[in-house]
Amino acid sequence: MLLLSYLCVLLGLGLSSAIPVQKTDDSMTWTPSTSTSARPTTSGAIQTTSSYQSFSTTGVTYYGSTVVPSTPAPASVGPSCGNCTPSVVWNDVIFLIDASAASTTKNVGDMWSFILSFCESLNVQRSSYTDNLQYVRVGVIAYSDDVKVVAGLGSVSFDDMFDLDIPYLAGGLKGTNLEKAITTASEMFDSSAHRPNSRKVLFVIAPDYNPAGTTAPQKVADTFKANGGILIAFEYTPSVGEPNPGLRTLASPNYFLNNHDNGIDDVLQAQCDANCFCLQNYLAYGNSARGTPVSGCYYPVDLPSSFMIGNRNCLKNYNNGYIASVQTADKQNFLTSITNNSIYIIGLENKNGVLQWSDGSNLGSYHPYRSGPPSSSDMVIVNNGYWDLTNNRNGYWYVCESSPCSANKYCDSV
Q1: 318 with 283: CB under 8 angstroms?
Q2: Domains and CATH numbers, the chain
């Protein structure tokens, strides 16, 4: 009878470790209020492979699996950005408005009214604002053959925006100078008006642009994205016209919108997604189609520590983090890859007979023990794919896991 029970346990462990796990896009989502346009939004659900390498999707290098489109799947295995309230987004945003002959005076007014309409849901404040840290700074640039700075970054609040006069510049019959507009905006972001910990967001709204013109902006747009910026391109064509998505090539992946298919809700979702990111040098375990981390941010620590001291170090020095949890074989493979296949601690502990992770969640069905669960004096280490036990005062490498920076989590560092 004992032998039969033992075989059942082994079989159960084998089955639990063999169950395939698919991750969902658990990036920041926002439910629109009744005061905004009720347009459907698209989520970038993803499935990831187990091949981990660095790749760049939105100008910032993220680390995770190759991203491919997927249908929604079970819950993620790490912290996401969660649901977003636009009023606590903390991006720095510069609006680039096409005021050339491709538009009209009326079109320029319509575009500005649209911008004001979605900014009404954001907390737009001047740089001098001190009530709280989660607010949006904006700047405004109009462009045609040349560029006119209407408002410097952080110089206006939402109420001030009503007093701005967006000029109709006409001109631009042979192509607009969007290249100079992006360069001017980049210089604003390089000034002290930009908060280093906030995401740099360019919002370009225009009828179209000629990518073959003498002032083609592709190169400066790519440089902006490569330096960590998010470029949202919104194509505005009047109802009598047909969409011509030439701006799509400028936009960050999946940040191209247009007035025929997208509304205020979609712009606010884009602002939420732009505000969802891992700190520099942290590694994302999986990214959405927009490059947002869907299952947490991870930092490998390659100096040995005990379990308690390692957890304290993660909390204090790694964005309020904790020693990483392992819910699936795929996540364990990810952690093993970023620790260079070393032996490392995972965040499982025995708390009065209950097996819990350092984030407070309970142990799930994945647990490839070599010799059984830990006691209260043990810690668990990953060694050649198996979970071994050792005294919790011994020292090994570990990985700090933390939630992404987002509207739900303000990060005061970069």
Answers
A1: no
A2: 52-84+280-414 (3.10.100.10), 86-274 (3.40.50.410)
What is the C-alpha to C-alpha distance for residues 245 and 242, in angstroms, rounded to an integer? Answer: 10
Contacts of 399 (CB under 8 A, 6+ apart): 298, 299, 300, 301, 323, 324, 335, 338, 339, 344
H-helix segments, 190-328: 218-226, 264-274, 307-317
C-beta separation of 339 from 399 below 8 A? yes
Q: Could you tell me the two tokens for 105?
A: 């005076």
| Residue burial 164-184, b: 16+ Cβ < 10 Å; e: rest | eebebbebbeebbbbbbbbeb
Read off the tokens for 46: 């993803």
The DSSP call for residue 384 is T
* C-alpha span between 290 and 340 (Å, rounded): 28
Q: pLDDT tens track of the chain, all 414 residues?
A: 444 444 443 444 443 333 333 333 444 555 444 333 333 333 332 223 333 333 233 333 322 322 333 223 234 688 999 999 999 999 999 999 999 988 889 999 999 999 999 999 999 999 999 999 999 999 999 999 899 999 999 999 999 999 999 999 988 777 789 999 999 999 999 999 999 999 999 999 998 776 656 567 999 999 999 999 999 999 998 765 566 667 899 999 999 999 999 999 999 999 999 999 999 999 999 999 999 999 999 999 999 999 999 999 999 999 999 999 999 999 999 999 999 999 999 999 999 999 999 999 999 999 999 999 999 999 999 999 999 999 999 999 999 999 999 999 999 987
Amino acid code (one letter) for 328: T
Structure tokens at 155: 């110089």
Tokens 């609006």, located at residue: 95
- What does the alpha-carbon distance between residue 238 and residue 252 come to, in Å, rounded to a whole number? 24
